[in-house]
Design a protein that fits this description.
The chain has eleven helices and 23 strands. With about 425 residues, it is of the alpha+beta class. The structure holds flavin-adenine dinucleotide (FAD).
């Protein structure tokens, strides 16, 4: 088996196959440590950590105390702010991590040393697939994408897996068509790490979402080394980067007066990176001799931070299907049909929730009266907060996030609280 791409999807797929003793060659055009070529912000939920536990990767290898966020703060620009404690999940964790993908991805790659049947080649850029008739039987590549004939190698395999990210070359070469796209609402995201950001308060590290409710959010995540990753997330139809991401990023941050004092003594310490228009969709998952995994088969907006978990999950499902095919209990076609079905069942509800949230929260502009009442009451409600964060950690099914029952109760409680406060104020005035 050849796996192209050695980050969350490819590395964990190779580890699972290696554990069962299957022979795998995994290649990546990058060398490690390095950041993923498609930039990614840093959030990992307990759901992802649980899949790393299952692979025997200790939390101490990727999580550090200063980037352990036990709360999420949501600020509605100039209106209100709420704090959501991360609930204790089934595995006992009550936090999310900000990751340094340099360290994290290199740790995944290093993990493969443990498996004698897994061979790794970094700095190997695949440029094409090899075919026998319709069937994919290997890959061609070299030390860089434009390597000449003398440097290029042809590597044969029984099957080839493209775990090569959202702009997958393998998907292009095998003609894996997009089977579902939700690109009516898309976002533009840019980010960088900073030092010297004014702490939010005296409390423990937190994630902070500052939303304008007018098509732009700025998100702060605690990072290893005391840094803060600051992400701009905007509706893409209103962004004109004009080829200068750095200028766009700084102008966006400067446009938000309430944030300025947090930057007063801060310094950006990494380049500005991001994606101009983040598509959402699925591709066909497999064909004769090939399969796709991770972002190569399913890609979406980062608003819910689900990409790494979905890549791990997809790798788990694909590994199980490949194992069944290798030991002869199913044909490749049968095993892959089951992989595609299970992947869809496991990821599609979250995909619908994420693209729905993107459309609602980035593209709709609720009137101030709604922000000050229904939205504030809902976001402040402990049951709603618990549900929201458990959905993001995949402990509750995604439709729970917009459950009419949870929301109606939150609004009813908020309304009661508001009426009580007004009554108390009125009675206080009368007593005086
Ligand atoms: C703006 C943004 C922010 C995000 N924030 C988060 C977040 O906070 N939390 C989260 O969980 N997810 C986030 N994601 C998603 C997450 O980064 C991805 O879902 C995840 O990295 C997918 O893993 P992967 O292994 O499928 O692909 P990738 O991580 O993209 O890795 C693909 C690998 O394939 C290699 N490759 C590509 N082409 C070739 C080739 N031709 N030959 C050899 N090797 C090749 C690349 O070098 C790369 O190493 C974000 C995504 C974006 C766009």
């Amino acid at each position: 088996m050849i796996i192209v791409g050695g980050r969350p999807a490819g590395a964990t797929l190779a580890a699972r196959l290696g554990e069962w003793g299957h022979r795998v060659l995994i290649v990546d055009r990058a060398t490690f440590p390095s950041l993923p070529q498609v930039p990614s912000s840093p959030v990992l939920y307990p759901s992802g950590m649980q899949l790393l536990d299952a692979l025997g990767i200790p939390e101490a290898d990727y999580g550090v105390p200063e980037a352990q966020m036990r709360r999420l703060i949501i600020e509605f620009s100039g209106e209100f702010s709420v704090e959501m404690p991360v609930p204790r999940m089934r595995d006992g964790r009550a936090y999310v991590y900000g990751l340094d993908r340099n360290v994290f991805d290199a740790r995944l790659w290093r993990e493969l040393e443990r498996y004698p049947s897994v061979e790794r080649r970094e700095g190997f850029a695949v440029t094409d697939v090899l075919r026998e008739g319709e069937r994919v039987v290997g890959v061609e590549g070299g030390p860089h994408p434009r390597a000449g004939a003398a440097e290029r190698e042809r590597l044969s395999a029984r099957w080839v897996v493209g775990a090569d990210g959202r702009f997958s070359l393998i998907a292009r070469k095998v003609g894996a068509e997009v089977t579902e796209a939700r690109d009516q609402h898309t976002s533009t995201a840019y980010f960088a790490d900073w030092e010297g950001i004014e702490p939010i308060d005296e409390g423990p590290p937190a994630g902070l979402v500052h939303t304008t409710a007018r098509g732009l959010d700025v998100v702060f995540f605690a990072m290893p080394g005391g840094r803060v990753s600051i992400n701009t997330h905007a509706r893409s139809d209103r962004v004109d980067v004009r080829g200068d991401a750095e200028r766009h990023y700084h102008e966006t941050l400067r446009s938000l007066a309430p944030l300025r004092q947090r930057f007063a003594r801060a310094e950006r310490v990494t380049p500005v990176i991001g994606v101009k228009r983040i598509g959402n969709g699925y591709r066909r998952a497999s064909g004769p001799g090939w399969a796709l995994c991770g972002d190569a088969v399913h890609y979406k907006d980062p608003v819910d931070g689900q990409g790494i978990y979905d890549a791990f999950l997809g790798a788990e499902l694909l590994a199980a299907a490949i194992d069944v095919a290798l030991i002869g209990d199913a044909t490749w076609e049968g095993a892959m049909a089951s992989y595609a079905r299970r992947l869809h069942e496991a990821t599609h509800p979250m995909f619908v929730a994420t693209t729905g949230r993107l459309a609602r929260e980035l593209y709709q502009e609720p009137p101030l009266a709604v922000i000050r009442t229904i939205i504030r009451w809902t976001l402040s409600d402990p049951d709603y907060q618990d549900t929201f964060l458990r959905v993001l950690s995949r402990e509750l099914p995604p439709p729970a996030m917009t459950s009419k029952r949870v929301m109606a109760r939150a609004v009813a409680r908020g309304l009661r609280g508001e009426l009580r406060r007004r009554l108390e104020r009125a009675l206080g005035r009368r007593d005086r």
